[in-house]
Amino acid sequence: MTRPMSGRPPSVKEWRLELYLSEHDPDTTARIVLDTGDNILESRAEARRNPYDMAVPEIGDELAAGRALIAMGRLLLRAANGDMKALGATETETPAPLWQPAE
After folding, report:
1. Which of 71, 20, 26 is nearest to 47 (CA)?
2. What is the rounded CA–CA span in Å between residue 88 and residue 99?
3. What is the distance of C-alpha 79 from the center of its chain?
4. Where are the domains positioned within the chain?
5. What backbone phi and psi angles, to 5 degrees, belong to 60?
6. Closest CA to 72 of 27, 33, 38, 100
7. What CATH fold (topology level) applies to the domain 16-82?
8. Quick check: 47 and 56 in contact, CB under 8 A?
9. One Pfam family of this protein, by short name (predicted)?
């Protein structure tokens, strides 16, 4: 059984994430607000339907929300990197990209 390295019990935190979707055909906008209790971060992203494609609102929602979540992930990684630098951490390698480039 794995035990905590320190004598204190593990802590549980709850972060609140709200995702807002707004559709104005052919555009869908996603806005994410993340409240960590200590900070509030916000990201936005959009998706635009090609006018020749069939109108399927769920696809626009998924694309916009996915892009906003990726943007939020980048904000969190930047915040952690800044915090580590402020504490005197040495430079680390750049994290792997979130997706592979198209060939």
Report:
1. 26
2. 30
3. 12
4. 16-82
5. -60, -40
6. 33
7. Double Stranded RNA Binding Domain (3.30.160)
8. no
9. Rv2632c-like
Per-residue three-class SS string for the chain: CCCCCCCCCCCCCCCEEEEEEEEECCEEEEEEEEECCCCEEEEEEEEECCCCCCCCHHHHHHHHHHHHHHHHHHHHHHHHHHHHHHCCCCCCCCCCCCCCCCC
pLDDT digits (tens, 9 = 90+) for 20-62: 999 998 999 999 999 999 999 999 999 999 999 999 999 999 9
For residues 10 and 95, what is the distance between their CA atoms, to the nearest angstrom? 27
Cα→Cα distances 98→59, 64, 71, Å: 20, 16, 10
